[in-house]
Amino acid sequence: MHSVGGWAALVGAALLGPREGKYRDGRINAIPGHNMSIATLGCLILWIGWFGFNPGSELAATENVATIAVTTNLAAAAGGCTATATSWLRDGKPDLSMVINGILAGLVAITAGCDAVNNWQAVIIGAIGGVIVVFAVAIFDNLRIDDPVGAVSVHLVNGVWGTLAVGIFGQANIIHQIIGIVSIGAFTVVFSFVVWLALKATIGMRVDHEDELRGLDISEHGMEAYSGFVKEADVLSAGNPTLKVSTSDM
Predict the structure, then answer these.
(1) Which pLDDT tens digit goes with each residue over 58-67?
(2) What's the number of CA atoms in the CB half-sphere (13 Å) around residue 45?
(3) pTM above threshold 0.90
(4) CATH of 2-201, one of 1.10.3720.10, 3.40.50.720, 1.10.3430.10, 3.40.190.10
(5) How confident is the model over 93-115, as pLDDT tens digits?
């Protein structure tokens, strides 16, 4: 499930192209998130929600529910720890965005095998996921695939890793897992490519250049999501704001 979404997101990001200013003069320009506190809260909410997702997939109150909850939690914690350590060693400082992605990577990686592995195997699966996601984000950036929140790295890369992990640590045949990864990935890439092209040719995939610069909070809702983020604003009316935005402020 996660890798399907990841493949579709990868195709969409490639067809859409990068955000304005992301790749310029041969450099990768970071466009940081505006509210990491809310991003962290979102991560924690997802972590809690995963206890409904993985144990809930049992569809019955069996003894497996507790085991699944424990393996899910261990993998998430391990992913957060290894992503923190990896980004710290790689960049010299711990990166909160990578901590968040590491936790999510651990959750994604354990989902396929949450009922088929023991606690230590869950830790290993999550820990590897936390390391992988840090390097995957850098790889996609170097490929000029603009993924603002690392969703492809979390869901595609760790969805694939988690599927392989079932064959490595669980009872599934690893060859069958590889066949499943390749066949489902190929179908999803082709199908999503057609859908994205249809959307691009009809309703479009990208907002206007001006709207991209000033932000969709302004163009869609007529107000700033982050007070003071837009430096110059001339509000002509409550329902129709006209903004003067300098790209140096973005």
Answers:
(1) 888 888 999 9
(2) 6
(3) no
(4) 1.10.3430.10
(5) 999 999 999 999 999 999 999 99
